[in-house]
Design goal:
Blueprint: E1 3-4, H1 15-29, E2 40-46, E3 49-56, E4 58-60, E5 65-66, E6 73-74, H2 80-92, H3 102-105, H4 118-122, H5 131-137, H6 148-155, H7 173-187, H8 191-203, E7 209-210, E8 225-227, E9 233-235, E10 248-250, H9 252-264, E11 295-296, E12 305-311, E13 314-321, E14 326-332, H10 339-351, E15 370-374, E16 380-386, E17 389-394, E18 397-400, E19 402-403, E20 409-410, E21 418-420, E22 433-437, E23 441-447, H11 455-461, E24 463-466, E25 473-479, E26 482-486, E27 498-504, E28 507-509, E29 512-514, E30 517-519, E31 522-527, E32 533-539, E33 546-550
Antiparallel strand pairs: 1-3, 2-3, 2-14, 4-5, 6-10, 7-10, 8-9, 11-12, 12-13, 13-14, 15-16, 15-23, 16-17, 17-18, 19-20, 20-21, 21-22, 22-23, 24-25, 24-33, 25-26, 26-27, 27-28, 28-31, 29-30, 31-32, 32-33
């Protein structure tokens, strides 16, 4: 049922190569190649020739509408390097510098803005909290309708950072939202207009634009889908205002034009797009894989650069293998697809015997399975095996872990760094597992005791807690034999009571489902010198230690 889209003409000698590529790529996507099933649009470009361009599944499953090269998709965070390109252009024109502090251009932000450069923001090493996750920790679901003005107001109320600038990396959409504000003030127009005038127009990307929010009607937009516990398809819903962090809508035909600009430079100054490959650097000397909206991650002995995107029901990826002049574009309209891994698999198909073998993981991965805690932070790490592949989940973010060749297992995506090991020898679950989180936070993972405090201890924690930064108010109470939390107390639609699972003394975790996503924060109660509970600190992947003071 795959739809073979029109390909660019090639010389006869390349037909055999094209055919072998396409057959192997078709097998990768075969499970989604069905009617009334969301799937993907895929393009592969080798040496400037489109050797594979095909649609799998349906673009709109309710009406049986198939994919076409002009079907629009939300490319989500693939948007980021488009914004960074505009920032580089403004730097060329002397209108701003990447090393400017963001407070120079957005002075209404709190004092931390005078410490953080635009470069640190674009490389995700600023330490700024993610607005979306700050709101989720405060009881606002991802489906809530939030305007750009409200998000800016919240940005101006944020008092503290996740960590000092350049100490770690933390993927954060707030970085790009605030750089967008700086760009718009220098340009005197919206980012949508800047993108059109500077990038989309010159490249002939006539079907690409920066969307404002999900309510906009687009008759040629693919539907984005996720699947509930019963396997039923659901439409993805995202209430937050779109921005330069992830708001571009595009199609395969236009993304091929963008890819070509990376090959020949496009109508821009020489080297502009390759200047995006400027990595972030941490104070510990680590050079990050995250650049200016692109990641540079080696794959089987070859360089790659690219970026993925994720919005409810949409998963996308744009990747280049510059040494072999290979490009992959995947636009998916289903939540459970992982285009990053599929892009690398396509790379493996094309590389063939030239690809170096993947490092072998340490023996006995099954004994690592379990829940761990770092006692210094209270963060938990859950390791699990899925079809022989190790996954690590901490603070709500789950990532695939791959062998590094030196006894460690680590993520490879370039933006959420979980690093464990070297894995100690022996039998059974390790008593201590060294690791690193976000490139600069040493962790010592120990099997979590998963204790059950007695009634008296739980009663000490019960109360009402409020966050001065977000205005969120939560109630904590003893319900039966366990502690529970009710988020967004006082709102018209507060969350129901949610059980809190004790990890160790004064440290808990809980889960709050938001349609296709589930928030899994760490909750740590703070005491004063006399032992009285005074605050509750909530942490998620992109928003750490958001403090809720006890008010009752």
């Amino acid at each position: 049922m795959s739809v073979a889209l029109k390909l660019a003409p090639v010389s006869a000698g390349k037909d055999e190569v094209r055919g072998s590529f396409s057959e192997a790529i078709d097998r990768l996507f075969a499970q989604w190649d069905k009617p009334a099933t969301p799937g993907a649009l895929v393009a592969v470009v080798k040496d400037g020739e489109v050797v594979h361009q095909r649609g799998y599944g349906d673009a709109v499953i309710e009406h049986g509408i198939r994919h076409t090269p002009t079907t629009r998709y939300r490319i989500a965070s693939v948007t980021k390097h488009f914004l960074s390109t505009v920032a580089l252009m403004l730097q060329d024109e002397g209108k701003l510098k990447l090393d400017d502090k963001i407070g120079k251009h957005v002075p209404e932000l709190k004092p931390w803005s005078r410490q953080i450069s635009i470069r640190q923001m674009l490389t995700m090493s600023s330490g700024i909290r993610d607005l979306g996750e700050a709101m989720t920790l405060s009881g606002s679901p991802s489906t809530a309708n939030v305007r750009a003005e409200q998000l800016m107001d919240l940005s101006c109320r944020l008092e503290t950072l996740n960590f000092p600038p350049s100490r770690q990396i933390s993927y954060c959409n707030t970085n790009y939202r605030l750089v967008q504000v700086a760009i718009e003030r220098k340009e005197g127009c919206s980012l949508a207009e800047s993108l059109q005038r500077r990038l989309f127009g010159p490249l002939g990307m006539s079907r690409t634009r920066l969307a404002n929010d999900q309510s906009e009607v687009d008759m040629e937009m693919a539907g984005g889908y996720w699947f509930d516990a019963d396997g039923k398809a659901r439409r993805g819903i995202y209430g937050m205002n779109y921005s330069g962090s992830g708001g571009i809508v595009s199609c395969l035909a236009d993304m091929l034009k963008w890819h070509q600009a990376f090959r020949d430079g496009g109508p821009f100054r020489k080297g502009l797009l390759l200047d995006l490959l400027q990595p972030g650097k941490l104070t510990n000397g680590r050079v990050l894989d995250y650049n200016l909206g692109l990641t540079t991650v080696p794959f089987r002995g070859f360089k790659t650069f690219g970026h993925g995107g994720s919005l409810p029901g949409f998963k996308t990826h744009f990747m280049r293998f510059p040494e072999i002049d290979l490009g992959t574009i995947i636009l998916s309209n289903r939540e459970d697809m992982v285009p990053y891994q599929l892009s690398r698999q396509i790379g493996g198909i094309v590389l063939g015997e030239r690809a170096k073998p993947l490092p072998k993981p340490p023996a006995g991965l099954d004994r690592l399975v379990g829940t761990y805690v770092d006692k210094a932070t209270g963060y938990t790490l859950e390791l699990k095996l899925k079809d022989g592949v190790l996954f690590g989940a901490t603070l709500g973010g789950e990532e695939r872990l791959e062998a590094t060749g030196d006894g460690r297992m680590a993520t490879t995506g370039g933006h959420f760094l979980i690093d464990i090991g070297p894995v100690p020898a022996g039998e059974g679950q390790p008593k201590k597992l060294p690791g690193m989180l976000d490139g600069g936070l040493p962790m010592t993972w120990e099997p979590a005791p998963m204790m059950r405090p007695g009634p008296a201890k739980l009663k000490e924690l019960a109360g009402r807690y409020q966050c001065a930064e977000t205005g969120g108010t939560h109630e904590v109470a003893v319900r039966g034999k366990d502690l529970a939390i009710k988020l967004a107390v006082g709102h018209a639609n507060p969350e129901p009571w949610t059980a809190m699972q004790a990890v160790m003394a004064d440290t808990f975790r809980y889960e709050v489902p938001h349609m296709q996503w589930t928030s899994k924060p760490s909750a740590r109660f703070r005491r004063n010198r006399s032992g009285k509970v005074t605050a509750l600190a909530l942490s998620s992947n992109r928003c750490r230690d958001l403090v809720f003071k006890r008010i009752k």
